[in-house]
Structure formats: C-alpha cells, structure tokens
Write a structure and sequence with these properties.
By secondary structure, the chain is of the alpha/beta class. The protein has 17 helices and 14 strands.
C-alpha cells in the first residue's frame, strides 16, 4: 500500500473523507524555524517543552487546556460581560447552562480546574482518608494529598497496557473498590474520584454500565462519587459509538444520564467547555455547597464570580451549549482518530484504542534501549520538537513524580508522549504534517540518546524540570 496522502486517507481507511464543521474567519501566523534555531531554543528550555516560548513553536500540541478556538457567538458574548462584583448576570447564565447540561443543583465558579480540585479536596477530605480513583491525574492527586488524602488506583488492569483494545479502559475495577472498603471501612473513604475520560491512560472512556454498577456499589456503603467532568463530552461520544443502547441517543442525553449517577463534579472549562480560562464545581448537597461557596471567597473570589470576569462566564455558558452539539464532538474526536489511524498505518506504537483528546505515543516502544530513568517520553517530546517544531508533552515517569514516603520516582507502567489536539484550531493538513514528523522521529529512534534531570521543583515537576542530554 502506498503511503497515505490528504486526498486518499478516507478511501484507504474504508470511509469517505470528512471536513471540519466550521470555516476560518481569522488566522494567526505560525513560526517556521530552522533546526539550528530549534536546537538553541530546546537547550535554553532545558529539554522541557513546557519551557519553550510559544513563538518558537510551529504546531502546538502541548495541551488542549485553554487552547481551543472560541466561536463567533462566544466572541460576541464577551461584549455582554457584566463586570459587577456581586450578582453578575453572566454567573446566572453560566449556572443555568451547567444545570441544564450536567444536571447538578448548585454551582460554584472557579478560575480554572485546579482551583475546583483544591476547593473540593479541602472541603471533603479528612487526613488519612483513602481517595480511590480510575488512575491518577497530576494536579488532582496533588490536591488530594495536600488535603491529607491517600490516592489509590482502582482502574481496570487493561488500562496499563497500551496495546490492549478494551473499549472502556477507563472503567473502575469494582473488586478493587470492594477490597478497599473491606480493608479500610467505608467511613475512611473520602469519595470515589472518577474521570471521564482518563487522561493518563490515553484519553480512555468509562462506560455507562460501569458507572451504574459503581453507583450501586457505593450506595450500599454510603460512599460518594465525584466526577472529573473535564472531558465528559468525549466520554459521551465513546459511549454513543461503542456501548449497546446508546447509538440513537444524543451527546446531551448521554452526558446528563452519566452525571446523574454521580454526586458532584469539578470542571476545567478550558477543555470541553471551549474557553481559554475558567472552571467550576457542581454539587447536589446543600451543606457541601455552603462549605464550598464559603471557601471560594477565601481562595478564588466571590461565589458569583470565583476569580472570573463576567465576560469569561458568558463565553463559558455559550461554550457549554456548543460542546454538546453532536457534529462538533464528532469532528473533534474524528480529528484525533484521523491522526491516530495514520500513525497505526505506519506501524508507530501508540495507545489503543485511540482516545478522545490526544494521541499518546508509546515511548517505551519507541526507545526500548532507554531505561525509564533516562526519561524516554521526555526524550521523545524533545526529538519531535527538534525535527519539526511540534510541541508535545511527557506523560510518564516525570509526570508521575516521587513517592512522598520513599523519595524514589514513581515508575508508571505507561511511559507516554502526548500529542494533544486543541479544539477547532488545526486542520486536517496540520495532522498530516504531525504524522510525518512522528514517522521521521520513529525512523531515527535507534540512535536517540536519553536525558538526565538537572533541576527538579518540589511540586508538579513536569512543568518546570530541566534536563540535559546523556
């Protein structure tokens, strides 16, 4: 088979070609640099793609957090900002949008997702309590630990195998949850932390059947379920596509049902809600709401703005409405699938099934000659930037951090480099450029040397750590 091209990709994968359901109204010029310029920039950044200047990046796949393109309706909404300190009408628009789409009763806005993680952790977790979750996320686990909680992974074992094709690798292992209840007692569990989809597993979804079963188990013991709803729309898409009985249901219907099996949710609105800044907490319990809206005044801002301008809340309310449009989410995940299918066609090792927000390159398979303490995923991110100016990020041993008891690295089974696709930003042609760059780096893999860490910050080291070539 000849190598795929933009014109023939659809036919070669047995389906008709597709195009993005939007047209471009404004353009932002991108920098095209030389390899010599990229080498200098990478050395100055300590081989950490987070420390690169955006002006030195060609295609930025570092994250989908706050990097989405807003719609014309959202930009128009910015002009409707009510910047009153208290009681902004934009807050009530946001509150109504969250209640309609997600179904929770009480809403607390925050400046972004980690503000919400901090508040819920401080309000709910007692020192020494267990917080089971379907794989850790970096900021979530840190806030849980800073509040005195102890995270325990209860995701199914298949999630730790990049090649496993289980359609819902984000599922919670109910036997693992039961074992924790039996060992520690339900009163010593703060809550079950459920993410839909699971970022660190490769953007893998949790099924509706699994969240229903988890709800039934938790109801027997009085344990709460709190949802990280950051990428819930993508999770709903996979339920629609893969789970029996949901093919004819809309994304909006699936999201509402899924949330109904949980007690509360936090949100980084910079992802699915299609804005550049913002977050929220949503709960059904009045007493918990009272605690949260008291805490938000201490850490974020008044309970009707939570660190946000009125215009930001207006854009978020509109983004929530747009995020459950079936055509939008089909295109969003479809762009990720397009890139992933091309890489698979070339035999490049990635996490499968292809996730909702990113392609996760299997850095261990890229560089089997590198030890994990030589940071293969960080190395791969550096090599990809050197090749073509594409910025990706590490999701492996650097992101995992250190065990607070032993001081040694955590050694996750997954050592991944993430190519994160912003929403409504890049075209299909950009995805072809990315795929060709990954192939070039893969073809040169045997001669690649690893890295050593020369600077390590205390918290969330992947953001600011610095490295040198071995």
């Amino acid at each position: 088979m000849s190598e795929p091209t933009p014109k023939t990709m659809g036919q070669q994968f047995g389906r008709r070609s597709w195009a993005e359901p939007w047209k471009i109204k404004m353009v932002e010029p991108l920098a095209v640099t030389t390899r010599e310029q990229r080498e200098k920039a990478l050395q100055e950044a300590g081989y950490n793609t987070f420390l690169l200047k955006s002006e030195d990046v060609y295609i930025d796949l570092l994250t989908d957090s706050g990097t989405s393109a807003m719609s014309d309706r959202q930009w128009a909404g910015l002009m409707l900002g009510d910047e009153a300190y208290a009681g902004s009408r934009n807050f009530y628009r946001l509150e109504a949008a969250i209640q309609k789409v997600y179904g929770y009763k009480y809403i607390v806005p925050t400046h972004q997702g980690r503000g919400a993680e901090h508040l819920i952790s401080q309000a709910v977790i007692k020192k020494g309590q267990i917080v089971p979750g379907n794989m850790y996320f970096t900021t979530t686990r840190l806030h849980q630990e800073l509040a005195g909680g102890i995270f325990q992974d209860v995701i199914i074992d298949e999630a730790h195998d990049p090649a496993n094709l289980h359609p819902f690798k984000g599922n919670v292992d109910l036997d693992k949850v039961q074992a924790i209840i039996d060992k520690h007692g339900a009163e010593n569990i703060a809550y079950i932390s459920v993410a839909g989809t699971v970022n660190m597993a490769g953007g893998q979804p949790i099924s509706m059947a699994n969240i229903k079963a988890l709800r039934a188990l938790c109801d027997r013991y009085g344990v709460k379920i709190y949802l990280d709803a950051t990428r819930m729309m993508e999770n709903a898409f996979f339920i629609q596509q893969r789970e029996e009985g949901y093919a004819e249901k809309s994304i909006a219907e699936i999201v509402r049902e899924f949330c109904s099996y949980t007690d509360a949710a936090w949100m980084s609105a910079k992802k699915d809600n299609l804005v550049n800044i913002g977050g929220w907490l949503a709960v059904n319990d009045w007493e918990l709401f009272e605690e949260l809206r008291n805490l938000v005044v201490v850490y974020e801002g008044l309970h009707t703005y939570g660190g946000l301008a009125g215009r930001d809340m207006e854009a978020m309310a509109i983004g929530i409405e747009e995020s459950v449009d079936d055509q939008h989410i089909r295109s969003r995940v479809g762009q990720v699938l397009y890139l992933g299918e091309l890489l698979l066609h070339w035999g490049i090792p990635i996490v499968q099934p292809i996730g909702g927000h990113a392609i996760f390159l299997d850095a261990k398979a890229f560089y089997p000659h590198l030890k994990q303490v030589e940071f293969p995923a960080q190395t791969l991110a550096a090599e990809l930037y050197l090749d073509s100016g594409i910025r990706s990020m590490e999701r492996g041993i650097v992101s995992a951090g250190r065990d607070p008891k032993t001081g040694d690295h955590y050694y996750p089974k997954l050592e991944l480099t993430r190519l994160t696709i912003p929403r409504r930003v890049y075209t299909q042609a950009h995805m072809d450029v990315v795929a060709e760059a990954v192939k070039a780096v893969y073809d040169a893999r045997e001669s690649t040397r690893g890295l050593k860490m020369v600077y390590e910050p205390k918290y969330l080291r992947f953001f600011q750590a610095r490295f040198e070539r071995l």
